[in-house]
Description:
Elements: H1 6-20, H2 38-51, E1 79-91, H3 102-105, H4 155-175, E2 188-192, H5 196-209, E3 223-224, H6 243-252, H7 256-264, H8 266-273, H9 292-301, E4 307-308, E5 312-313, H10 316-341, H11 344-349, H12 351-364, E6 369-374, H13 376-385, E7 401-411, E8 414-423, E9 426-427, E10 450-452, H14 453-462, H15 468-471
Parallel strand pairs: 1-6, 2-3, 2-6
Antiparallel strand pairs: 1-7, 4-5, 7-8, 8-9, 8-10
Helix pairs in contact: 1-2, 1-7, 4-5, 8-10, 9-10, 10-13, 12-14
GO molecular function, one term: phosphatase activity
Pfam family, one: His_Phos_2
Protein name: Histidine acid phosphatase
Amino acid sequence: MARTRPMTAMVAFLLILSTVIPACQAHVAPRSTPANSSADNQKYYDQVVRAMHPMTSTYCKASVPTVAEYKLPVIPGASSLQLEKVLLFARHGDRSPIHPLIDDLANNVVWNCDANESMTLPDSKLVATKVSDVLSESWAPRSYMGTCALGDLTAKGRAMHVDFGQKLREIYVDRLGFLSRKLTLSELTWRATDVSRTIASAQSVLDGLYPHGTYHHGERITIRTRPYEVDPLHSSGLDKQCPKLKQLKTLAKKHPMWEQILNATTAARQQVIALAPGVEAADTSKGSPEQIENLMCRRCWGKAQPCVNGMGCMSEATVDDAWLIKSLDYWYKDNYFPNHVQPETVSLAMGPLFREILGIVDGGSKAKLHLFLAHDSTLSGILGALRAAPEQHQWPAYRSNLIFEVWSGVEKGVRGKYVRILNDGRSLVTDPDLVSDKPWCQFGGEHGETCTLDLFRVYLRAHSVDKWDEACKV
Protein backbone atom coordinates (compact mmCIF):
# COMPACT_ATOMS: atom_id res chain seq x y z
CA MET A 1 0.00 0.00 0.00
CA ALA A 2 1.35 3.44 -0.84
CA ARG A 3 1.95 5.37 2.32
CA THR A 4 1.66 9.04 3.19
CA ARG A 5 4.65 10.08 5.27
CA PRO A 6 3.70 11.93 8.50
CA MET A 7 5.08 15.23 7.26
CA THR A 8 3.63 14.80 3.75
CA ALA A 9 0.05 14.98 4.95
CA MET A 10 0.82 17.28 7.81
CA VAL A 11 2.98 19.90 6.10
CA ALA A 12 -0.04 20.93 4.05
CA PHE A 13 -2.15 21.05 7.18
CA LEU A 14 0.41 23.06 9.13
CA LEU A 15 0.95 25.56 6.34
CA ILE A 16 -2.79 26.15 6.39
CA LEU A 17 -2.72 26.18 10.19
CA SER A 18 -0.37 29.15 10.20
CA THR A 19 -3.02 31.25 8.43
CA VAL A 20 -5.92 30.58 10.77
CA ILE A 21 -4.63 30.11 14.33
CA PRO A 22 -4.86 33.26 16.46
CA ALA A 23 -1.63 35.09 17.18
CA CYS A 24 0.39 34.25 20.25
CA GLN A 25 -0.23 37.63 21.82
CA ALA A 26 -0.62 38.46 25.49
CA HIS A 27 -3.32 40.48 27.19
CA VAL A 28 -6.02 40.00 24.57
CA ALA A 29 -9.03 37.71 24.53
CA PRO A 30 -8.93 34.62 22.29
CA ARG A 31 -10.39 35.23 18.86
CA SER A 32 -11.33 33.16 15.84
CA THR A 33 -10.08 35.61 13.20
CA PRO A 34 -6.66 35.06 11.62
CA ALA A 35 -3.70 36.88 13.12
CA ASN A 36 -1.91 39.59 11.18
CA SER A 37 1.64 38.86 12.33
CA SER A 38 3.43 36.30 10.18
CA ALA A 39 6.09 36.01 12.91
CA ASP A 40 3.47 35.01 15.46
CA ASN A 41 1.98 32.55 12.98
CA GLN A 42 5.39 31.01 12.37
CA LYS A 43 5.97 30.69 16.11
CA TYR A 44 2.72 28.84 16.61
CA TYR A 45 3.37 26.74 13.50
CA ASP A 46 6.68 25.57 14.97
CA GLN A 47 5.01 24.72 18.28
CA VAL A 48 2.39 22.58 16.56
CA VAL A 49 5.01 20.77 14.47
CA ARG A 50 6.88 19.81 17.62
CA ALA A 51 3.76 18.95 19.61
CA MET A 52 2.08 16.88 16.92
CA HIS A 53 5.14 14.90 15.89
CA PRO A 54 4.09 11.25 16.22
CA MET A 55 4.66 9.92 19.73
CA THR A 56 2.94 6.58 19.27
CA SER A 57 5.45 4.73 21.45
CA THR A 58 3.69 6.13 24.52
CA TYR A 59 0.17 5.19 23.41
CA CYS A 60 0.26 1.59 24.60
CA LYS A 61 0.80 2.52 28.26
CA ALA A 62 0.85 6.01 29.70
CA SER A 63 3.29 6.97 32.41
CA VAL A 64 2.06 7.31 35.98
CA PRO A 65 3.54 9.07 39.01
CA THR A 66 6.25 7.04 40.76
CA VAL A 67 7.58 7.46 44.28
CA ALA A 68 11.09 8.02 42.89
CA GLU A 69 10.01 10.96 40.73
CA TYR A 70 7.13 12.33 42.81
CA LYS A 71 7.88 15.67 44.46
CA LEU A 72 5.87 17.88 46.77
CA PRO A 73 4.45 20.94 45.03
CA VAL A 74 6.46 24.15 45.09
CA ILE A 75 4.25 26.92 46.49
CA PRO A 76 6.27 30.12 46.99
CA GLY A 77 5.80 31.54 50.48
CA ALA A 78 3.79 28.57 51.77
CA SER A 79 4.95 26.13 54.44
CA SER A 80 3.54 23.21 56.44
CA LEU A 81 1.99 21.65 53.33
CA GLN A 82 -0.77 19.09 53.85
CA LEU A 83 -2.50 17.01 51.18
CA GLU A 84 -6.26 17.16 51.71
CA LYS A 85 -7.92 15.60 48.68
CA VAL A 86 -7.08 13.76 45.46
CA LEU A 87 -9.25 13.36 42.36
CA LEU A 88 -7.94 10.85 39.82
CA PHE A 89 -9.27 10.56 36.26
CA ALA A 90 -7.88 7.71 34.17
CA ARG A 91 -8.50 5.93 30.90
CA HIS A 92 -9.03 2.17 30.97
CA GLY A 93 -6.17 -0.18 30.21
CA ASP A 94 -5.21 -2.11 27.07
CA ARG A 95 -8.20 -3.58 25.25
CA SER A 96 -9.17 -5.57 22.20
CA PRO A 97 -10.33 -3.67 19.08
CA ILE A 98 -13.84 -2.26 18.80
CA HIS A 99 -13.95 -1.99 15.00
CA PRO A 100 -13.01 -5.18 13.08
CA LEU A 101 -11.13 -4.83 9.81
CA ILE A 102 -11.41 -6.83 6.62
CA ASP A 103 -8.55 -9.16 7.50
CA ASP A 104 -10.02 -9.68 11.00
CA LEU A 105 -12.98 -11.29 9.28
CA ALA A 106 -10.53 -13.42 7.29
CA ASN A 107 -9.32 -14.86 10.62
CA ASN A 108 -5.83 -13.41 10.26
CA VAL A 109 -5.68 -12.04 13.82
CA VAL A 110 -6.67 -13.65 17.12
CA TRP A 111 -7.64 -11.75 20.29
CA ASN A 112 -7.85 -13.75 23.51
CA CYS A 113 -9.00 -12.44 26.87
CA ASP A 114 -9.06 -15.73 28.84
CA ALA A 115 -6.37 -14.49 31.23
CA ASN A 116 -8.52 -11.53 32.27
CA GLU A 117 -9.38 -12.84 35.70
CA SER A 118 -10.59 -11.15 38.87
CA MET A 119 -13.40 -9.31 37.16
CA THR A 120 -15.13 -9.21 40.51
CA LEU A 121 -13.85 -7.77 43.76
CA PRO A 122 -11.43 -9.84 45.88
CA ASP A 123 -12.77 -12.79 47.88
CA SER A 124 -16.08 -13.03 46.01
CA LYS A 125 -17.55 -16.42 46.90
CA LEU A 126 -20.21 -16.43 44.20
CA VAL A 127 -18.45 -15.20 41.07
CA ALA A 128 -14.92 -16.29 40.22
CA THR A 129 -14.18 -15.02 36.72
CA LYS A 130 -15.78 -13.44 33.70
CA VAL A 131 -15.06 -14.82 30.23
CA SER A 132 -16.77 -13.56 27.08
CA ASP A 133 -18.26 -16.30 24.89
CA VAL A 134 -18.05 -15.12 21.29
CA LEU A 135 -20.80 -16.56 19.11
CA SER A 136 -19.70 -18.50 16.05
CA GLU A 137 -23.19 -18.80 14.55
CA SER A 138 -23.51 -17.78 10.91
CA TRP A 139 -26.10 -15.16 11.81
CA ALA A 140 -23.90 -13.49 14.44
CA PRO A 141 -22.15 -10.20 13.58
CA ARG A 142 -18.72 -10.93 12.12
CA SER A 143 -15.77 -10.22 14.38
CA TYR A 144 -12.25 -11.51 14.95
CA MET A 145 -11.08 -14.88 16.21
CA GLY A 146 -10.51 -15.51 19.91
CA THR A 147 -12.32 -15.12 23.21
CA CYS A 148 -12.34 -11.31 23.43
CA ALA A 149 -15.56 -9.45 22.86
CA LEU A 150 -15.32 -6.10 21.12
CA GLY A 151 -13.44 -3.67 23.34
CA ASP A 152 -12.71 -6.14 26.15
CA LEU A 153 -10.04 -5.31 28.71
CA THR A 154 -7.08 -7.64 28.19
CA ALA A 155 -4.88 -9.25 30.82
CA LYS A 156 -2.25 -6.64 29.93
CA GLY A 157 -4.83 -3.90 30.47
CA ARG A 158 -5.72 -5.20 33.90
CA ALA A 159 -2.06 -5.60 34.88
CA MET A 160 -1.20 -2.00 33.99
CA HIS A 161 -3.92 -0.72 36.34
CA VAL A 162 -2.88 -3.06 39.15
CA ASP A 163 0.58 -1.54 38.68
CA PHE A 164 -0.98 1.93 38.76
CA GLY A 165 -2.65 1.12 42.08
CA GLN A 166 0.67 -0.10 43.48
CA LYS A 167 2.37 3.15 42.44
CA LEU A 168 -0.41 5.14 44.09
CA ARG A 169 0.05 3.15 47.29
CA GLU A 170 3.79 3.88 47.35
CA ILE A 171 3.07 7.61 47.13
CA TYR A 172 -0.17 8.23 49.00
CA VAL A 173 0.07 5.49 51.63
CA ASP A 174 3.75 4.67 52.21
CA ARG A 175 5.35 8.06 51.61
CA LEU A 176 2.75 10.72 52.40
CA GLY A 177 0.54 8.79 54.83
CA PHE A 178 -2.41 10.42 53.10
CA LEU A 179 -4.40 7.16 52.98
CA SER A 180 -4.57 4.53 55.70
CA ARG A 181 -2.39 1.43 55.36
CA LYS A 182 -5.46 -0.76 55.80
CA LEU A 183 -8.46 -0.27 53.52
CA THR A 184 -10.77 2.34 55.03
CA LEU A 185 -13.91 2.54 52.93
CA SER A 186 -14.80 6.07 54.03
CA GLU A 187 -11.57 7.36 52.45
CA LEU A 188 -12.41 6.21 48.92
CA THR A 189 -15.07 6.77 46.27
CA TRP A 190 -14.91 4.82 42.99
CA ARG A 191 -16.70 5.90 39.78
CA ALA A 192 -16.61 4.38 36.32
CA THR A 193 -18.57 4.53 33.12
CA ASP A 194 -21.03 1.68 32.74
CA VAL A 195 -18.66 -0.28 30.49
CA SER A 196 -16.97 -3.54 31.46
CA ARG A 197 -13.42 -2.41 30.59
CA THR A 198 -13.62 0.71 32.78
CA ILE A 199 -15.26 -1.13 35.67
CA ALA A 200 -12.59 -3.85 35.51
CA SER A 201 -9.85 -1.20 35.31
CA ALA A 202 -11.28 0.57 38.37
CA GLN A 203 -11.25 -2.70 40.28
CA SER A 204 -7.68 -3.35 39.16
CA VAL A 205 -6.51 -0.01 40.58
CA LEU A 206 -8.09 -1.03 43.89
CA ASP A 207 -6.37 -4.44 43.75
CA GLY A 208 -3.01 -2.67 43.48
CA LEU A 209 -3.77 0.04 46.01
CA TYR A 210 -5.00 -2.40 48.66
CA PRO A 211 -3.62 -5.90 47.93
CA HIS A 212 -4.40 -9.05 49.90
CA GLY A 213 -3.64 -8.60 53.56
CA THR A 214 -4.54 -4.90 53.66
CA TYR A 215 -8.32 -5.26 54.04
CA HIS A 216 -10.70 -7.19 56.24
CA HIS A 217 -12.46 -10.26 54.90
CA GLY A 218 -15.76 -9.34 53.30
CA GLU A 219 -15.01 -5.63 52.84
CA ARG A 220 -16.28 -4.28 49.53
CA ILE A 221 -16.12 -0.91 47.84
CA THR A 222 -18.96 0.19 45.59
CA ILE A 223 -18.09 1.16 42.03
CA ARG A 224 -20.75 3.65 40.99
CA THR A 225 -21.90 4.07 37.39
CA ARG A 226 -24.50 6.11 35.52
CA PRO A 227 -26.40 5.51 32.28
CA TYR A 228 -24.45 6.53 29.20
CA GLU A 229 -26.83 9.32 28.17
CA VAL A 230 -26.56 11.18 31.50
CA ASP A 231 -23.01 10.38 32.58
CA PRO A 232 -20.70 13.45 32.57
CA LEU A 233 -17.80 11.02 32.08
CA HIS A 234 -19.35 10.30 28.67
CA SER A 235 -19.22 13.88 27.41
CA SER A 236 -19.46 12.53 23.86
CA GLY A 237 -22.94 11.24 24.69
CA LEU A 238 -24.34 14.32 26.39
CA ASP A 239 -25.38 15.88 23.10
CA LYS A 240 -28.23 13.36 23.06
CA GLN A 241 -29.69 15.32 25.98
CA CYS A 242 -28.41 18.74 24.88
CA PRO A 243 -29.61 20.09 21.51
CA LYS A 244 -27.42 23.18 21.87
CA LEU A 245 -24.30 21.05 22.33
CA LYS A 246 -25.23 18.96 19.32
CA GLN A 247 -25.65 22.17 17.34
CA LEU A 248 -22.20 23.39 18.41
CA LYS A 249 -20.60 20.07 17.44
CA THR A 250 -22.18 20.38 14.01
CA LEU A 251 -20.90 23.94 13.77
CA ALA A 252 -17.39 22.75 14.62
CA LYS A 253 -17.43 20.56 11.51
CA LYS A 254 -18.12 23.61 9.35
CA HIS A 255 -15.29 25.77 10.65
CA PRO A 256 -12.47 26.53 8.16
CA MET A 257 -9.88 25.00 10.49
CA TRP A 258 -11.73 21.66 10.52
CA GLU A 259 -12.16 21.68 6.76
CA GLN A 260 -8.46 22.30 6.30
CA ILE A 261 -7.52 19.49 8.67
CA LEU A 262 -9.72 17.13 6.67
CA ASN A 263 -8.33 18.31 3.35
CA ALA A 264 -4.75 17.90 4.53
CA THR A 265 -5.33 14.37 5.82
CA THR A 266 -7.56 13.00 3.05
CA ALA A 267 -5.02 10.54 1.64
CA ALA A 268 -4.15 8.96 4.99
CA ARG A 269 -7.80 8.75 6.05
CA GLN A 270 -8.76 7.01 2.82
CA GLN A 271 -6.00 4.44 3.32
CA VAL A 272 -7.44 3.58 6.72
CA ILE A 273 -11.09 3.51 5.69
CA ALA A 274 -10.23 1.08 2.88
CA LEU A 275 -9.52 -1.51 5.60
CA ALA A 276 -13.07 -1.41 6.95
CA PRO A 277 -15.53 -4.09 5.80
CA GLY A 278 -18.61 -2.83 3.99
CA VAL A 279 -17.78 0.86 4.42
CA GLU A 280 -17.90 3.38 1.62
CA ALA A 281 -15.24 6.06 1.06
CA ALA A 282 -14.87 8.32 4.07
CA ASP A 283 -17.34 11.17 4.37
CA THR A 284 -15.23 14.31 4.64
CA SER A 285 -17.30 15.50 7.60
CA LYS A 286 -16.54 12.46 9.78
CA GLY A 287 -12.95 13.21 10.63
CA SER A 288 -10.69 10.44 11.86
CA PRO A 289 -11.80 6.94 10.78
CA GLU A 290 -13.00 4.72 13.62
CA GLN A 291 -10.70 1.94 12.45
CA ILE A 292 -7.58 3.79 13.63
CA GLU A 293 -8.02 2.29 17.08
CA ASN A 294 -7.70 -1.22 15.62
CA LEU A 295 -4.32 -0.32 14.13
CA MET A 296 -3.06 0.86 17.51
CA CYS A 297 -4.39 -2.28 19.24
CA ARG A 298 -2.30 -4.33 16.84
CA ARG A 299 0.78 -2.21 17.44
CA CYS A 300 0.45 -2.57 21.20
CA TRP A 301 0.47 -6.36 20.83
CA GLY A 302 3.07 -6.57 18.08
CA LYS A 303 0.50 -8.03 15.68
CA ALA A 304 0.83 -7.62 11.93
CA GLN A 305 -0.86 -4.59 10.43
CA PRO A 306 -3.73 -5.35 8.02
CA CYS A 307 -3.42 -6.13 4.34
CA VAL A 308 -5.92 -5.55 1.56
CA ASN A 309 -5.94 -7.46 -1.73
CA GLY A 310 -4.51 -5.32 -4.47
CA MET A 311 -3.35 -2.62 -2.06
CA GLY A 312 -0.65 -4.31 -0.02
CA CYS A 313 -0.15 -4.08 3.73
CA MET A 314 -0.36 -1.07 6.01
CA SER A 315 3.08 0.23 6.93
CA GLU A 316 4.00 1.28 10.46
CA ALA A 317 4.71 4.77 9.14
CA THR A 318 1.12 5.00 7.91
CA VAL A 319 -0.03 3.93 11.38
CA ASP A 320 1.93 6.93 12.67
CA ASP A 321 -0.04 9.09 10.23
CA ALA A 322 -3.27 7.62 11.57
CA TRP A 323 -2.28 8.31 15.18
CA LEU A 324 -1.52 11.90 14.22
CA ILE A 325 -4.95 12.28 12.62
CA LYS A 326 -6.63 11.05 15.79
CA SER A 327 -4.56 13.41 17.94
CA LEU A 328 -5.44 16.38 15.75
CA ASP A 329 -9.10 15.38 15.89
CA TYR A 330 -9.14 15.48 19.70
CA TRP A 331 -7.02 18.64 19.87
CA TYR A 332 -9.29 20.52 17.48
CA LYS A 333 -12.67 19.45 18.87
CA ASP A 334 -11.82 19.68 22.57
CA ASN A 335 -9.21 22.44 22.66
CA TYR A 336 -8.93 24.67 19.60
CA PHE A 337 -12.62 25.05 18.72
CA PRO A 338 -13.91 25.60 22.29
CA ASN A 339 -11.11 27.96 23.30
CA HIS A 340 -10.73 29.97 20.09
CA VAL A 341 -14.18 29.87 18.53
CA GLN A 342 -17.07 28.77 20.78
CA PRO A 343 -16.30 28.94 24.55
CA GLU A 344 -19.89 27.91 25.29
CA THR A 345 -18.92 24.40 24.20
CA VAL A 346 -16.92 23.89 27.40
CA SER A 347 -19.84 24.80 29.68
CA LEU A 348 -22.16 22.37 27.95
CA ALA A 349 -19.78 19.47 27.25
CA MET A 350 -17.69 19.58 30.43
CA GLY A 351 -19.84 21.73 32.72
CA PRO A 352 -21.71 18.81 34.36
CA LEU A 353 -18.39 17.12 35.21
CA PHE A 354 -16.93 20.42 36.42
CA ARG A 355 -19.89 20.81 38.78
CA GLU A 356 -19.21 17.32 40.11
CA ILE A 357 -15.58 18.26 40.71
CA LEU A 358 -16.69 21.51 42.32
CA GLY A 359 -18.92 19.63 44.74
CA ILE A 360 -15.96 17.48 45.84
CA VAL A 361 -13.44 20.30 46.33
CA ASP A 362 -16.09 22.35 48.13
CA GLY A 363 -16.27 19.66 50.79
CA GLY A 364 -19.36 17.83 49.57
CA SER A 365 -17.61 14.50 50.19
CA LYS A 366 -15.49 13.45 53.15
CA ALA A 367 -13.60 10.87 51.09
CA LYS A 368 -9.91 11.56 50.45
CA LEU A 369 -9.37 9.79 47.12
CA HIS A 370 -11.94 10.00 44.32
CA LEU A 371 -11.30 7.73 41.33
CA PHE A 372 -13.02 8.25 37.96
CA LEU A 373 -12.30 5.51 35.40
CA ALA A 374 -13.33 6.52 31.90
CA HIS A 375 -12.22 6.82 28.27
CA ASP A 376 -9.89 8.70 25.92
CA SER A 377 -12.68 11.15 25.06
CA THR A 378 -13.12 11.95 28.77
CA LEU A 379 -9.44 12.73 29.30
CA SER A 380 -9.30 14.76 26.08
CA GLY A 381 -12.35 16.78 27.10
CA ILE A 382 -10.79 17.66 30.45
CA LEU A 383 -7.44 18.56 28.87
CA GLY A 384 -9.15 20.80 26.35
CA ALA A 385 -11.29 22.52 28.97
CA LEU A 386 -8.18 23.14 31.07
CA ARG A 387 -6.48 24.57 27.95
CA ALA A 388 -3.57 22.15 28.04
CA ALA A 389 -0.57 23.01 25.90
CA PRO A 390 -0.43 21.13 22.56
CA GLU A 391 2.45 18.90 23.69
CA GLN A 392 0.23 17.63 26.53
CA HIS A 393 -2.96 17.29 24.51
CA GLN A 394 -2.72 14.41 22.11
CA TRP A 395 -4.68 11.16 21.83
CA PRO A 396 -4.87 9.97 25.47
CA ALA A 397 -3.04 6.66 25.84
CA TYR A 398 -4.15 3.54 27.70
CA ARG A 399 -4.30 4.38 31.44
CA SER A 400 -3.68 8.04 30.64
CA ASN A 401 -4.30 9.90 33.89
CA LEU A 402 -5.04 13.31 35.34
CA ILE A 403 -4.55 13.73 39.09
CA PHE A 404 -6.00 16.77 40.85
CA GLU A 405 -4.34 17.30 44.24
CA VAL A 406 -5.76 19.78 46.75
CA TRP A 407 -3.08 20.99 49.16
CA SER A 408 -3.18 23.39 52.09
CA GLY A 409 -0.28 25.48 53.32
CA VAL A 410 0.46 28.35 55.68
CA GLU A 411 1.29 31.64 53.99
CA LYS A 412 1.80 34.78 56.11
CA GLY A 413 0.19 33.06 59.07
CA VAL A 414 -2.93 32.06 57.14
CA ARG A 415 -3.66 28.55 55.85
CA GLY A 416 -4.68 28.65 52.23
CA LYS A 417 -5.53 25.92 49.71
CA TYR A 418 -4.00 25.17 46.33
CA VAL A 419 -4.57 22.83 43.39
CA ARG A 420 -1.91 20.94 41.45
CA ILE A 421 -2.73 18.84 38.37
CA LEU A 422 -0.51 16.00 37.19
CA ASN A 423 -0.91 14.78 33.61
CA ASP A 424 0.56 11.29 33.16
CA GLY A 425 2.84 11.97 36.12
CA ARG A 426 4.02 15.40 34.94
CA SER A 427 2.80 18.78 36.14
CA LEU A 428 0.15 20.11 33.77
CA VAL A 429 1.25 22.92 31.47
CA THR A 430 -1.43 25.14 29.97
CA ASP A 431 -1.08 26.71 26.54
CA PRO A 432 1.01 29.87 27.10
CA ASP A 433 -0.45 31.41 23.95
CA LEU A 434 -4.04 31.24 25.17
CA VAL A 435 -5.47 34.01 27.30
CA SER A 436 -8.97 34.69 28.56
CA ASP A 437 -11.24 37.46 29.70
CA LYS A 438 -12.43 35.11 32.48
CA PRO A 439 -10.40 34.01 35.52
CA TRP A 440 -8.69 30.69 34.92
CA CYS A 441 -5.83 28.64 36.26
CA GLN A 442 -2.60 28.80 34.28
CA PHE A 443 0.10 26.23 34.93
CA GLY A 444 3.74 26.05 33.90
CA GLY A 445 6.53 28.56 33.42
CA GLU A 446 6.12 31.79 35.36
CA HIS A 447 2.76 30.60 36.69
CA GLY A 448 4.24 27.69 38.60
CA GLU A 449 2.62 24.30 39.08
CA THR A 450 -0.24 25.28 41.43
CA CYS A 451 -3.33 27.46 41.38
CA THR A 452 -5.21 28.73 44.41
CA LEU A 453 -8.29 26.68 45.21
CA ASP A 454 -10.37 29.87 45.24
CA LEU A 455 -9.36 30.69 41.66
CA PHE A 456 -9.89 27.06 40.63
CA ARG A 457 -13.44 27.22 42.02
CA VAL A 458 -14.10 30.45 40.13
CA TYR A 459 -12.82 28.79 36.96
CA LEU A 460 -15.06 25.74 37.40
CA ARG A 461 -18.11 27.92 37.98
CA ALA A 462 -17.30 30.19 35.05
CA HIS A 463 -17.08 27.19 32.72
CA SER A 464 -20.30 25.49 33.82
CA VAL A 465 -23.93 26.53 34.19
CA ASP A 466 -26.46 26.41 37.03
CA LYS A 467 -29.29 25.08 34.87
CA TRP A 468 -27.73 22.84 32.27
CA ASP A 469 -31.06 21.74 30.79
CA GLU A 470 -32.07 25.35 30.20
CA ALA A 471 -28.71 26.22 28.65
CA CYS A 472 -29.09 23.26 26.30
CA LYS A 473 -32.20 24.62 24.63
CA VAL A 474 -31.96 26.04 21.13
